[in-house]
Design goal:
Radius of gyration: 25 Å
Oligomer: single chain
CATH superfamily of the largest domain: DNA Polymerase III, subunit A, domain 2
Number of domains: 3
Structural class: alpha+beta
CATH architecture of the largest domain: Roll
Order of helices and strands: EHEEEEHEEEEHEEHEEEHEHEEEEHEEE
Strand content: 35-45%
Distance between the termini: 67 Å
Number of helices: 7
């Protein structure tokens, strides 16, 4: 007997922690499976896609059971547990190449694959750097930039977030070539500068799994791997090789500033976006003394215009942007105020916040 009469939630909760990187259809069938290992009532759950590996362990408190290991289809197993009635007690047994899952009134038989065939990432983290910070800080840093990551770009080094350990700071940068987000937070200690690129999938999983509290998260770095340990979870990921763009050159310094209430700008952009071109999503910013006009139009000759009173006193400007990019930035800051800084009509826009002196968000202009 692998496990006997255990509350389904005890198994479902750790399964949901590791299941995020599992795809139903894989070139290797075993990669669709979760590895479950029971040693004296402690069950370890592991999943991998050969790039990332997530492991977590629970203590069922049940001793004297069968020390065993098997792999089973992760998504199917999760769905079965999820739809069982609350407070269901489950028993799992393995016979030949099947896992039998039983409750009082339900029986399921799932195909298994041998645990010894499950591929695990080799450890490439001997004598590596290690930093510790609160989970909330790392989560907030990743969320503040991850929307600017590229998706399946041939410039593979853009499909992730650049992490820079530099002195007493952890810096994060993401760009897809059309916009760039930068943020930084303080860390204890003083470190030599090191840069690594975390893959998109690892960033997404960490953003979901990290807690909004001050419990610690430990990061270990090498040139090949990053290991993140927190709340009984271990995530190991390969890093993306390649040279990330020089983000410092992209972040401009401007003298024309516009302070806006974040919610006012968000709502105006949402309304203007309705009639923007569906493909290019462009809006025009027309800035004059103490006034901002946000204008959009589409191929059906429909037009929207929003007027906002402002504190702007710079040169008149008429400049176009992708409205989705602007809204991404506004949706991912907590500050009640956003500061927009401008150059000329062919220059990027810079968004900052008074509350976080480190945060920078740069959006390239577009012709409309």
């Amino acid at each position: 007997m692998f496990i006997e009469k255990t509350d389904k939630e005890i198994i479902l909760k750790p399964l949901q922690v590791v299941i995020g990187i599992v795809e139903r259809k894989q070139t290797l069938p075993i990669l669709s499976n979760v590895l479950m290992e029971n040693q004296d009532g402690k069950i370890r759950f592991t999943t991998t896609d050969l790039e990332i590996q997530i492991t977590t362990t629970i203590d069922t408190g049940i001793r004297g059971g069968q020390n065993a290991a098997f792999t089973v289809g992760g998504k199917k197993f999760q769905e079965i547990l999820r739809v069982l009635p609350d407070q269901s007690k489950i028993t799992i047994d393995t016979k030949e190449n099947k896992a039998q899952i039983k409750t009082n009134k339900s029986r399921f038989s799932l195909q298994t694959l041998p645990a010894q065939d499950f591929p695990q990432l080799s450890n490439q983290l001997e004598n590596t750097k290690k930093i510790v910070l609160p989970q909330k800080e790392l989560k907030d840093l990743l969320l503040s930039v991850q929307y600017a990551m590229a998706q399946q770009d041939v410039r593979y080094y853009l499909n992730g977030v650049l992490l820079i350990i530099d002195g007493d700071k952890l810096k994060v940068v993401a760009t897809d070539g059309h916009r760039l987000a930068y943020n930084a937070g303080a860390i204890d200690g003083h470190y030599e500068k090191q840069e690594i690129i975390l893959p998109r999938k690892a960033v997404s999983e960490l953003s979901k799994l990290l807690a909004d509290n001050d419990e610690s998260v430990e990061l270990e770095f090498s040139q090949q791997q990053v290991k993140v340990t927190f709340s009984g979870i271990t995530l190991i990921t390969k890093v993306i090789e390649g040279k990330f763009p020089d983000y410092e050159r992209v972040i401009p310094k401007y003298n024309n500033h516009l302070n806006m209430e974040r919610v006012v700008m968000q709502q105006a952009l949402q309304r203007a976006a309705i009639l923007s071109n569906e493909k290019f999503r462009g809006v025009r910013f027309v800035l004059t003394e103490k006034n901002l006009s946000i204008i959009s139009s589409n191929s059906e000759q429909e037009e929207a215009q929003e007027e906002i009173e402002t504190d702007y006193h710079g040169e008149p400007l008429d400049i176009g942007f992708n409205v989705n990019y602007l809204m991404d930035g506004l949706n991912n800051i907590s500050s009640s105020t956003a500061t927009f800084s401008f150059g000329d009509p062919n220059s990027s826009i810079l968004m900052t916040t008074p509350e976080n002196q480190e945060f920078r968000y740069v959006v390239m202009p577009m012709r409309i």
